[in-house]
């Protein structure tokens, strides 16, 4: 049994498919009422981890608890308390928002489906659109409807698998306001995303690659622990400079951001020396704090180098 303020504890979770480890000795802990972001490249094992945590998959080894229930032996109890929004949720295009939600409420076997649908409509800010057909909704409103369907059975934990993929920035922002409101009401949220702005809106983040946890903590902690020294380089000839820097020892990450190049390295002295060496050239080098994206690109570059 975990402490009452802890929603998820996972210790050494491992899962293989066809002899290939897709989650490798992964440990994590999520406090209740927190929004925990899950980041990592495609195929890094995020969905598989989420499915083990909510009792849909049994780990090959490792153990853990979700909402106080054992993820190996109490999977049915977990499923009753978790709302899971998958990447490919389905709704009925020719039913209205209200009809969709009433239908889902009936599937859940809720006592008063109409009242439950009403409550979900007002909780998720859908009141003005309740009678609109789901098929006519834009991507952002469809996601909100999916979120409303997830909270119908009053779950304690929401597992959201890339809930805003393909949704425009304003709708993503509104969706996140909603998630924060639900967390404020006490819901715990584990959400996978590829968007850095969304990662920064989480209380804590876990970054995984090749099934292994590479970084975990608040944005500030992850940036501080990265030990990266970063420069923002602007000016002429950035393409050629990037190619040269990628082959330079002491440069761990080079990434173009609009009209600038972000250059980072773990050895601050060596990178300062490289920056001094470029002084007086066509570019200007300005020391800056690494961004979360710098850190994740660096982690990924490291993993790719390790694979070669
Ligand atoms: N049931 C399964 N059988 C075989 N392989 C699987 C199965 N489920 C997942 N995989 C493989 O495991 C790896 C991890 O997949 P997973 O869906 O967990 O990654 P992910 O990080 O969620 O990826 P994405 O960001 O693309 O959603 C992938 O290579 C995937 O093809």
UniProtKB/TrEMBL annotation:
Residues 8-235 form the ABC transporter domain. It comes from the Bacteria. Pfam families: ABC_tran. The keyword Nucleotidyltransferase does not apply. CDD domains: ABC_DR_subfamily_A. One of its GO terms (molecular function) is ATP binding. Belongs to the ABC transporter superfamily. This is ABC transporter ATP-binding protein.
